[in-house]
TrEMBL record:
The keyword Ribonucleoprotein does not apply. Its EC number is 2.7.13.3. Pfam families: His_kinase. It comes from Thiolapillus brandeum. It comes from the Bacteria. This is Two-component system LytT family sensor histidine kinase AlgZ. GO terms for cellular component: membrane. Keywords: Kinase, Membrane, Transferase, Transmembrane, Transmembrane helix.
Length: 349
């Protein structure tokens, strides 16, 4: 099954060819023009004239600089952070110089009262240089923060890989031993499922899995637990039109189901039920794991450390940003965990 790798950009500069970045440039330059117009206007009656002229002037600088960086993005991506930042700053200064020269020749200078062409160029270059340096510094710090979050997410993933509960392994092996004398075929199936589960848990975090593969791993895990718990474990699946080939981070669903078995089914005297729901709406996959809880008088309560939940939450945030999320809580006397994430094409993954 095809897998998609995480792509890491060497340059801290965002994609200035993207719609979101261009929109941010337009909004930022408009706000800057408004601030400059408010600061330079003696009477509010002249504010709109100054603002409209200033917005047009500043936006042309921003959009031209974004165009330069967009055209050179592949080359900039091969440079170190320092060199890429310096080149980007020089491109901003070049855009400011060109726009000031063009404006000085095309726009009558009476629109710039008390300002000569030389003054206009010096002021434009000065403001562009200072703001450009501040913006590039912000982009660099934001990139460093994201890299830190990614490193923390990978560390949590590795901790999750090493986290497979010993009791699950030992109980599964005991199940295999008990099946060998009378049901060797079932014992072999359990061993195969165990091998697939451990192979998936020891996989590379930089690779993406798929919705179909994660569903299959979850079924294999439940098949192993079903052999051990028997009728105490009741499973309900409700999946609607899930895109099985859609990429998703590995080990998202199975740890949620494992938590449901460990905290909800095993402590219950009569077992319980796990419900797994899957929906696909508006290019968003939503997966829900719901489990019954042990009776209050069962005398067994397992306190989890929430490492798996926090790991999943962080990896969703790093991978998809605000487009993905997780919600946990009680729903109709059941504990429920719901995750959702967008389905993107391979070029966006």
């Amino acid at each position: 099954m095809a897998q998609v790798e995480y792509r890491t950009e060497q340059s801290f500069l965002p994609d200035f060819c993207g719609v979101r970045t261009l929109f941010a440039v337009v909004v930022s330059t408009t706000v800057l023009a408004m601030v400059l117009a408010l600061a330079a206007t003696d009477h509010l009656q002249a504010f709109w004239e100054n603002f409209s002229m200033g917005a047009l002037y500043v936006q042309w600088i921003g959009l031209m600089a974004a165009t330069f960086i967009c055209v050179l993005r592949r080359w900039l991506g091969k440079l170190s952070h320092g060199r890429a930042g310096l080149v980007a700053w020089l491109l901003i200064m070049l855009a400011a110089l060109l726009v000031s020269l063009i404006a000085g020749h095309l726009i009558p200078m009476e629109y710039f009262p008390g300002v000569s062409l030389g003054d206009l160029m010096i002021r434009t270059l000065g403001i562009s240089g200072i703001l450009g340096a501040l913006i590039l510094r912000y982009l660099y710090e934001n990139h460093q923060q994201k890299q830190k979050e990614l490193a923390e997410s990978r560390a949590r993933f590795q901790a999750l890989q090493a986290r497979i509960r010993p009791h699950f392994l030992f109980n599964s092996l005991n199940t295999v031993i008990s099946l060998i004398p009378q049901h060797p075929g079932q014992a072999e199936e359990v061993l195969q499922d165990l091998a697939d589960l451990f192979r998936a848990s020891l996989g590379d975090e930089s690779r993406m899995s798929s919705v179909g593969r994660e569903m299959e791993l979850t079924r294999q895990y439940l098949a192993v637990e079903q052999q051990r718990l028997g009728s105490r474990l009741r499973i309900t699946w409700s999946l609607e039109d899930l895109p099985e080939d859609a990429p998703m981070p590995a080990l998202l669903l199975q740890p949620l189901v494992e938590n449901a078995v460990y905290h909800g089914i095993e402590p219950a005297v009569h077992g319980g039920e796990i419900c797994i729901f899957g929906r696909y709406r508006n290019n968003v996959v939503a997966l829900t794991v719901s489990n019954t809880l042990a009776e209050q008088d069962a005398g067994v309560h397992r306190q989890g450390n929430h490492m798996a939940l926090e790991n999943i939450r962080q990896r969703l945030a790093v991978r998809f940003g605000e487009e993905a999320g997780m919600h946990t809580g009680m729903v109709e006397d059941r504990y429920q965990v719901r995750i959702w994430f967008p389905v993107k094409g391979e070029k966006d993954a």
